[in-house]
Design brief:
This protein is mainly alpha-helical. It has a single domain (2-132), classed as Cytochrome Bc1 Complex, Chain D, domain 2. 50% of the residues lie in helices and 4% in strands. The chain contains seven helices and two strands. Strands 1-2 form a two-stranded antiparallel sheet. A hairpin with a 2-residue loop joins strand 1 (88-90) and strand 2. Helix 3 (35-49) packs across helix 6 (106-118) and helix 5 crosses helix 6. The protein is globular.
Length: 139
């Protein structure tokens, strides 16, 4: 798993250099409203999903304007907590690369998902800790 994570980081870094994605403005309201989620996102998620939330085409799905994300907030929390090895269709494109778990606690999962639900102009609302407390952490 460690080798795979390193491979994903190298792939993401190569894509950043080759595709010239713009950075997210520092004044995104989601940064101030969900500071812990923003911190987690920038530490754990940015390599694949980028600062813009646009992901990397054909590799990592976008979170900005993602129909998949908005369709099931609880699934999003589950994936951040436990990872995902299921193919997913996001805005009509299929993504097959597995996603390793990103956080260790339900609170951190809620924080980062609330951030992505509201960053980059997303209007996804929020999810509460109470709504996800039944999700088992399985790794």
């Amino acid at each position: 798993m460690k080798k795979y994570a390193i491979f994903l980081m190298i792939l993401a870094m190569a894509a950043i250099g080759n595709q010239g994605f713009a950075l997210t403005p520092d004044d995104d309201p989601a940064d101030a409203k969900f500071p812990n989620g923003a911190k987690i996102y920038k530490a754990k998620c940015v390599a694949c999903h980028q600062l813009t939330g646009l992901g990397i085409p054909n590799a990592f799905p976008p979170l900005k304007g993602s129909d998949y994300l908005m369709a099931d907030k609880k699934r999003a929390v589950r994936q951040v907590l436990n990872g995902s090895h299921e193919p997913m269709t996001v805005n009509g494109a299929v993504y097959n690369l597995p996603m390793p778990f990103q956080v260790d606690t339900h609170q951190d999962a809620v924080d980062v998902i609330n951030y992505v639900l509201n960053a980059w102009g997303n209007k996804g609302g929020t999810i509460t800790l109470e709504e996800v407390k039944d999700i088992k952490i399985v790794r």
